[in-house]
Batch of 2 targets.
Target 1
Amino acid sequence: MQDYFLKGLLGRASQRGLFSTSFINIRDFSNSKHRKVDDFPYSDHQGMILKVDVLARAISSIDQYAEYRLLYMCPKGPVLSQESINRYSQESKGLIIIPGYYEGIDERLFDLFTIERVSLGNFILSSGELPALVIAEAVLRQIPDVVGNPESVGEDSLLSGLLEYPQYSNPRNYQGLEVPEVLVNGNHKLIETWRRKASIKHTLFQKPSLLAQLEITDSDKKIIVHALEGDPL
């Protein structure tokens, strides 16, 4: 997992000291001869769960761990949203992310620590590493200067409250499919208007629930009506 933060945009941001990450090998906190970190659950020898004593020692080893927000990747938690990411990015100390393994973790860990469960959706993975990386990258993108152009972050889908407008590049014509003329005529006001219409239309037909959370202007209402009537952009 650590290599993920050493390449590309995140790697450059890390080298510039914009954020730091550290990883804990929970086997270092096992008291057993073979550094065992899991065991069968009581009353049911199906699958394995991570041991509470091992995880508790691992968390407690972090300096001032109580000042961090603790997250556990778990299907029992609410589905991750951009609102949650924004909230996590405001943590003054940072995040401690606990990836799950096997059948989960000993429930007593939630009695010992304040841990927030987080889910990526109703599907199954072999471990919580990928969901943990998803959260980490989404949060790190919100740190100033991690993404070179701050306007790019502000225009991301969902941050604006709408899905992003379609993007096009060269060639201008491919197999008879043309880039919309408005995007190549150099009129920035018309381009902004087109982008707004496209974002509203995509949101309306793909994620209409987002519109309910958005402050809709009279102009936006007209766009919605025309879209529902089948008018092109």
Target 2
Amino acid sequence: MASRFPNADPGFGVYVHWPFCLSKCPYCDFNSHVRAGGVDETRYVAAFRAELAHRAALAPGRVVNSVFFGGGTPSLMKPETVAAILDAIAQNWTLAPDAEITLEANPTSVEAGRFKGYRAAGVNRVSLGVQALNDADLRALGRMHTTAEAMMAVGIASAIFERFSFDLIYARPDQTPEGWRKELTEATRRAGGHLSLYQLTIEPETMFERLVQAGKLKIPAPDVGRALWDVTQEVTTAAGLFNYEISNHAARGQESAHNLLYWRYGEYAGVGPGAHGRLVTPRGRLAQSTERHPEMWLTVVETEGHGLVEEDLLSREEQGDEFLLMGLRLSEGISPARYEAVRGKPLDGARIASLIEDGMIEHAPDGKLRVTTDGFPVLDSVVADLAA
């Protein structure tokens, strides 16, 4: 599959976590918080600057190919805050001239003036959390926008940014394949070359989990979930939006560079409350995570100079497992030779042969190993089998 960086190494990126939202969605298990009294953005900018300097000392001399502002709701930030963080990134590393700089936004926080400010700050791609195209399901998902507001936000994004994407959630309560086909067909008409389509999962310690346990929320049965998956592949393919990753669909050349960096097992610095990172240092590949609570993260950064609370040196076996878990999500698959270089030993030929015989994986023309259409719905078991 063609991509923006078809033959390059995965590259280096920066993930910036902004943990604040207007409200907490009942299905969400992300590190997000509501602060009715507002946020001291000046103080947070200083903390981000400290974090970035700390990561640059661990991983100096990198060229940043992508920056991703995630959350939370980064579109609640002032454009000046985004500009200051991007300036700090450029001061610590080389920011590639064609770097993809993405900011997540919710339709409720989209304003033309604010979006023009983000564009002026350096953002060149936005990802909108639309989630559904009917008002009843938006209310059930705890979203604060309407379908009309979402489509207005899409229109503003398409007018200001060269590239944009939006998310939808499917396998929602009482959703039918016919209803999803109609909704998704409309979404493909409005998409800017990229759609992220996530099957609803009930995450631990969420409001949805409590509702399911109480018998007050019923998600589609597995056979309906599979039918919804099949509709997803059919409609997006017909629209020219190919599933370059299990949940992400794009026109050729419109894939998210930052997402590809993750799935191709690249290197990235994670800054902000609850951010994760993977840095390659003289010690080896480090798995890093920061303090999750925003105010505590501020205190830790101001005291220690960084917000890291976990920093683990990954073994070759752990790296191999991560490489498989991430890379097999891609329709392009993985290079067995690169797996061997990462893991220190080759994949088990007998397991590969067995999975090929079962129709779960196949060899691509370029020699990569990739999951088949039949294998994607049971991807976790395919990865577990190969990694065993």
